[in-house]
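Hi R.,

Here's the chain you asked about this morning:
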Amino acid sequence: METEVLISGLYGVNVPKRFAEDYGDYIKDPEIKAIFLEGPLNPQYWDAWDEFLESYMDETGCWLRQNDEGDLLCSTIWDEE
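And here is the predicted structure, written out as tokens:
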């Protein structure tokens, strides 16, 4: 498995917002993107983020998750035969 830190947990509650700012083209639903860009004061922010993380995988096989430090990670599982 390869893992890359996309956004540092130092952004705290703004990690979803920062993701939308830096990687917004990967968010297919414009409503979800708008929620993230509004920031953590939007009442749907955390529920939308949780749903997004549960369902996201891009064409390269990258799936997103947050570690205990709050870093947003892209993990790719390579099937080596």
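One quick note: The first strand starts at residue 2 and ends at 7.

Cheers,
M.
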